[in-house]
Amino acid sequence: MTARSAVFSVSAISALAMLYVGAYQIRAVEHLKCPLLKHGCEAVADAPFARPFGIPDGLIAAVMYGALVLVAIVGPEKNWIRYSARGIALLAVAANVLGVLDMARLGAYCFFCLLTTVLSPLLAWAAFAW
Fold first, then answer.
1. CA dihedral sign of residues 57, 61, 64, 66
2. What's the pLDDT tens digit per position in 70-125?
3. Are 65 and 92 in contact (CB under 8 A)?
4. What pLDDT is attached to residue 28?
5. CATH superfamily of 3-129
6. Exposed, middle or buried: residue 67 (CB in 10 Å: 0-12, 13-18, 19+)?
7. DSSP class of residue 46?
8. What are the boundaries of each domain within the chain?
9. How big is the CA angle at 66 (ends 75 and 28), to the nearest 5 degrees?
10. Closest of 115, 95, 86 to residue 21, by C-alpha
11. CA angle at 58 for the pair 42 and 82, rounded to the nearest 5°
12. CA distance 74 to 60
């Protein structure tokens, strides 16, 4: 697996997971099916910290990961594209760490958020290796 395909794969998985959470946050989905953690996903998605600037964080994350998918498809022929991909990957890592800290304070955890958090170091490594 090349670093570019790792960026694509991890970003696509993360984008789909966060799109599902975002769909629940705007009530396009009635209930989140949360593997392993029961109703933790819904508690986290409905928490006040899950709406920075009044926008559901699931949708913000889906857009961020979607941008990485597009960059992986197009490829970084220019330096600014490569640096942008690295910056977005680092932003994803930081956002995931802050999200886990917020979930710990809340006392509930979201499977999909934890999934993207576990994948984010691989994403950052792949973005810098590419």
1. negative
2. 999 987 778 888 899 999 999 999 999 999 999 999 999 999 999 999 999 999 99
3. yes
4. 97
5. VKOR domain (1.20.1440.130)
6. middle
7. T
8. 3-129
9. 165
10. 115
11. 150
12. 21
